[in-house]
Specification:
Shape: globular
Number of domains: 2
Structural class: alpha+beta
CATH superfamily of the largest domain: Rod shape-determining protein MreC, domain 1
Order of helices and strands: HHEEEEEEEEEEEEEEH
CATH class of the largest domain: Mainly Beta
Distance between the termini: 110 Å
CATH topology of the largest domain: Thrombin, subunit H
Strand content: 25-35%
Radius of gyration: 27 Å
Strand order of the largest sheet: 3-4-7-6-5-14
Helix content: 25-40%
Length: 269
């Protein structure tokens, strides 16, 4: 200490060494606290991403030219443009399983935030599952990793579609059914949602063809699909609010109900 006080060179060397040690400690301390802030940062990014998607959807709807109202079987309401049929609610997974025969997810949002049963759930990577039940603050989701969930998926390149179901073997893969032997596809082909059900809009990524085979006596392929979502690392999702759900349901119930009734009457005759 005496030398460093009286000798300029020695003092400069000591100060330089001290600054290096102090800088190293500050850097490690900063990295330590940044690590614990990642959870909050990820949540903020997920929320911002959802808000951006909703804004883009709103802008697209404002460009659309549609009539002011629709009337279907006595149902009257302000028309919702096709580009504005869907809104997205950001949520965080607070509990999940991937190793059970029937897996479930629990979200930190519920009916207070507008979530209802039968709403589709997606992530930035692709399709996750469907909302089963809700409480005011929480939602229970049946993911693809549950035999109770069936996703209508189609090949992006040719639009042939079939039901996608999990066979309970591996959380990374599912099975695509009802693809006839005349359909042409290849390994690595992309599968997306078909848009034939109200739960998911068309075009959301489901996965890719990982393997397939067919026997001489079979009419349909056995297709293994590698899922786009890694359920072991999934933390944030978006719940899809289909704004025309009620109107479409009324129309379909009216149309298909009459058809089923006529069919039953024909059997009785």
């Amino acid at each position: 200490m005496l030398i460093s006080r009286n000798k300029g060179y020695q003092r400069s060397v000591l100060l330089s060494s001290t600054n290096q040690v102090t800088g190293w400690m500050y850097e490690k301390s900063s990295n330590f606290f940044e690590f614990f802030k990642l959870k909050e940062a990820n949540a903020n990014l997920a929320l911002e991403n959802t808000e951006l998607i909703n804004k883009v959807t709103l802008l697209e709807s404002q460009l659309a030219s549609l009539t002011d109202s629709v009337f279907i079987t006595g149902w009257s309401k302000k028309a919702i443009p096709p580009e504005k049929e869907y809104e997205y609610i950001s949520a965080r997974i607070i509990r999940s399983t991937t190793h059970l025969a029937q897996n479930y997810l629990t979200l930190n949002k519920g009916s207070n935030q507008g979530i209802k049963p039968d709403m589709g759930v997606i992530s930035d990577a692709g399709v996750v599952g469907v909302v089963q039940t809700v409480s005011p603050k929480f939602s229970k989701v049946i993911p693809i990793l549950n035999p109770q969930t069936t996703i209508s998926a189609k090949f992006k390149k040719n639009n042939y579609y079939g039901p996608l179901m999990w066979d309970g073997v591996d959380y990374r893969y599912a099975k695509l059914g009802d693809i006839a032997r005349h359909v042409r596809f290849s390994l690595g082909d992309t599968l997306i949602t078909s848009g034939l059900v109200k739960t998911f809009p068309e075009g959301i990524l489901v996965g890719t063809v990982d393997n397939y085979n067919i026997k001489e006596s079979d009419a349909y392929y056995n297709i293994q699909v590698k899922l786009a979502v890694d359920f072991r690392t999934l933390t944030h999702v978006k719940v899809i609010n289909y704004l025309n759900y009620e109107e479409q349901g009324i129309l379909e119930q009216s149309a298909y109900g009459v058809a089923e009734q006529n069919q039953e009457n024909g059997k009785d005759d």
